[in-house]
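Ticket #515: bound-state structure for adenosine monophosphate.
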Amino acid sequence: MNAGDTNFKNGWRLDNSYSCLPTFFYTRLTPTPVKAPKLVLLNRGLAERLGLSVVELESDEGVSILAGNRLPPGADPLAQAYAGHQFGYFTMLGDGRAILLGEQITPDGCRFDIQLKGAGITPYSRGGDGRAALSPMLREYLISEAMHALGIPTTRSLAVVTTGESVWRDREWPGAVLTRVAASHLRVGTFEYAARMGHVDLLRTLADYAWERHFLAADPVGASTEEESAVTAAQMPVEPTAAGNRYLTLLREVIKRQAQLIAKWQLVGFIHGVMNTDNMAISGETIDYGPCAFMDTYDPATVFSSIDYHGRYAYGNQPIMAAWNLARFAEALLSLLHDDEDKAASLAQKEVSRFPALYHAHWLAGMRMKLGLFGEEAEDENLIVDLLALMQENKADYTNTFLALTYENEKMEGATIFASAGFATWYERWQARLARQKEPRKAARRLMRQSNPALIPRNHRVEEALEAAVERNDLSILQRFLDVLAAPYAHLTTQAEYAALPPPSDRPYCTFCGT
Ligand code: AMP
Ligand code: MG
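RESOLUTION: The complex was predicted; output attached.
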């Protein structure tokens, strides 16, 4: 893919490969202008990464671009069409309030979608107002950036602007637009849409496009730092396929990336909350921060979302639901996998059936690191599972238990789990395992510090920051929170207070499909 018709004004260098696809996949339209745009948050680091001028983005012209009142040079704005299984049921969807401006080509040659979320009504709005409220957009900004800093592939947030208009939800809220940056917005649901509504040629066109965009190109800059995690997920080199079947390889690679992604979620206790197939990106990035939240007390049944009545997307179910979504992806690809229906189905099934083992391998490797374990011993998994069982039994905080083990003794007083009889035995087994490895304790502790975050975006802290921003126009709490969340593995003294648990409450934390 070439950058094509580019324009370098103010750093904008937009290409529009998606709008070169057949119009079946989108509707061209411009964002609906808003009354009085005002910049609330700008991600300077990300702007620089994208090659955009911070000064220009902060200017009136820049802010009107971020609000959708003016188009950046080279934009070919559109709303994408897609479908999806929502809580198990197939639905026609599409961007109901998001508009893709184009794909920014970064100075080092990477390609990122620039999308305005909350940019007005589209043909896919289905009765919605096409708008977004400030609090959920700040929430998406905060959590997506925290995820990025945790080393988890994710869409990112470039800016939040307020619109000077109100939106009505449970009450009147200030309206806002979020600029989302993604390796792409291709979803499992995009393929479901093509498979159900289109001709096989359209499906093939989409599959070829996804292949070329995410799996064909070798990583152009050899990106490997944490800063580049979105890139490494989206542009990882691909294993050559044995069968030489491009679509089977596409399926295999998407499955591999999801196995890696979901393991990373589980390792930090991230609960997505709405893992519908329209919210699963082909690139392997986490997408759609609605009712997501981090687990505090360890319990696989944890659910925060107010609409997840049956716990379909509970913490412990996430790997199962990811496999379910991937089965929908495989189904959508069937007609490309083989001319013979039965052979296509058996090929697809074989690929999807690999997910649990792939996921488990990533999870086990990550858990070993969280416990400072080098090498592999057969008993490692039992050691891990037994610790998790102790956490559940003693209602221990997931993040802070690993933190206490990382710091050893300094922070182990206080929590019930460490005083329990079961823990003493477990601790001995752990110590014996550590003693058996040739790596010194110092190396194990370093590994643990690199694998256990000093802090996560704790729900009460998130609420505190959003409340101050939205109700009192005070962004300082959110800004400080963003700063400490930017380096979760640095273990700075300034982060310690953010590890504190919320005061006990009899009301469970509840999130809403933030709109
Ligand atoms: P989500 O639950 O965020 O994945 O959204 C599901 C679908 O609802 C997507 O097609 C969104 O574009 C659409 N949607 C969400 N909020 C709105 C809104 N306020 N107006 C129009 N469409 C919306
Ligand atoms: Mg969505």
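RESOLUTION NOTES: The pocket of magnesium ion (ligand 2) is lined by residues 278-279, 288 (CB under 6 Å).
TICKET STATUS: resolved
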